[in-house]
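#structure-requests
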Amino acid sequence: MRFRFDVGLFAIAACLVSSAAAAGVVILFEHQNFEGQRMSLRGDMPNLDRTEFNDRTESILVRDGTWEVCTDAFFRGHCMRLSPGEYRNLSGEFTRSISSLREVRGGPPPRPQPAPPSGRPHAQLYEERNFGGREMLIEDQVVNNFEDLGFNDRAASMRIVGGYWRFCTDANFQGTCRTFGPGEYPQLPGDLTNRISSGRRLREEDLPARPYAPR
């Protein structure tokens, strides 16, 4: 009996070790390009306010697993999912705004969150037509590479609330580019659908003679 008991304990311990080894790893950095102070996590963090890293993250390194990061505590506010990779510049509403994060182990994707009522001009990009799927919001900032936000080549529809915005198929505003004015675009043109890699709000002097208009 003693032998069987010890074997059972060994099996449980092995299972726990295996689970720990399978857990994802994410590293938060205080500044862009993985500089400044850092904090490594292997489990859910429902409230970063209990640490010294609340609203401080500017870049993230996801080593293992898929992680959901949110601007409010307890996985609320505006959220996005990050797969393994390097996120050197969390521009937009996620810059120095992350308050909770957790590893996602399967299940349906998070419901899109509404845009914050800031009143400022902004663009809302969606990964599916007709404003479905995950959403990404950008305001006045310039996004040279959507890869940094985990949204590269994903946008299939968008809403423009104020101003005129240019989006391009390649990083740093290269490739095919189009300008969008205020309105709803439930289906992007074919040459931009699931291909957008950079975007920015235009100044008045940079406006083209004819912005894109859906047929």
